[in-house]
Amino acid sequence: MNTQEMMNMALAAAGLDKMPEDCGIVVPGEGIKKVLMGVDMDTAELMLAKQLGYDCVVSHHPRNTSVNKLDVMKDHIYKLEALGIPRNHSQKLLAERITELDYNLHVSNSRRSESAAKLLNMPFLSLHTPADIISERIVQQFLDDKFGGKPETTVQDIVAALDEIPEYKNSARKPVIRAGAKDSYAGKIYVLMSGLTGPGAKILKAYFDAGVGTLIMMHIPEKDAKAIKEQSIGNVIIAGHMSSDSLGLNAIAKKWAEKGVETTMMSGIVTE
After folding, report:
1. In the predicted model, is pLDDT for residue 82 greater than 90?
2. Helix axes 43-52, 112-120, angle to 10 degrees
């Protein structure tokens, strides 16, 4: 396969018809049979791949240089609209968080990994949102099947159930409750793992205002968890960052394997 075919397969697996701004073919390549994939892949991992004879490196966290990367956060507007929150309302709530991230992104060393990959002549993909969407759907379907029509479900029931998924069971960091108590009723369970990164406390509150009882997320800053707890508006379960990312990445690697591409996992990926 080539890098474009690999990207197309990942997008198709996530149900996307175009490449999000947090993805990219950083360095294109052909004839790829051996891939080294990780959650965070940088110069050291690129050099390791070269030394070990890999044909391509794939990083989950963005390594492309798109200046429009933050556009991916607008997914929260459409998610909330589907839950009944007007898009003009959530757009305003999200603006503060986007501004905060823009300050951080503007000073970042955006071509560090790209320059190393080019010097090594190593094909390099950055593959973020597709894997996150796949993870989100896997967990949502699992929890819907497990707890649909069961109003007595508690937050602890969800935490225990997540351990049935191999990536969570095998992870060093287990799912934790960041807002709510073990015996809190779960209410409507909503898995929120795509949308680039955490959207901030104001947007999280909007999800609860829309009727969500428990949010299942990859990670949350302490300040956002504190804001949710202080307002007593809902429950937050953090399923785990590396483990949640791994769900989607493992699924994509299986698709590539069907085309004869062997993928070695490292740098944070939890295998089944």
Report:
1. yes
2. 20
